[in-house]
Amino acid sequence: MNHLLPTRTAAEAEARDPVHAVLPVGSFEQHGHHLPLITDTVVAGAITRELEAAYRVFALPPVTISCSHEHHAWRSTVSVSARTLASIVDDVYDSVTRSGFRSLTVVSGHGGNYVLSNVVQEACAAGRSMALFPAKDDWKDARRAAGLTTSDHEDMHAGELETSILMYASPELVRDGWQHADWMADDRRDLLTLGMRDYTPSGVIGKPSEASAEKGKAALDSLTGGFARLLTLFGHLHDGRP
Predict the structure, then answer these.
(1) Threshold 0.70, pTM exceeds
(2) Strand partners of residue 78
């Protein structure tokens, strides 16, 4: 069973002697009719589980509500302010470093969490060891590795990539109807002003009909391999070994 929350005991976690903490950040927002409101949390959690399985890192429980203001037209979507999300990440960093961890990576499963980039930039400028993952190029690499038919611009929300990852990581959460849920809206230049509803009636922008569990696994495998770059950057990985 793939749990959405970490299930290790304190003793089990200490036995692995991790030096780097990983904080998944999801969201609670609409994802069309075929994916659940917790989709971004599931994505961030799936990436974090794969990282913990591959490297000596400490997986934290996810932040499940974040900045989903572009989805406000759907009353099932819930957001916190950018200030609140930034404060949560800062507080978590302070806590884990006081506990002996040397660095923190924030794994964001929601593209609308723009503030996280600024949080990481400011933290590193102040001498903290923090990273945001996956970067845009990590996602591009994952798309290529998975053989996705859509680009990151075309496949913005509840489309081929997210549906594929859930098909692999938590297939029980994917509702029927994904086969016919495609919706394209390539010109979204006023998205921040208008919100999602002006661009999609269903909440989908992308092609979930192209999704598969195989693509989801390949995307996660690519992201897991790409994470080694950050561990090397922080001095936690040498010659491919933790």
Answers:
(1) yes
(2) 28
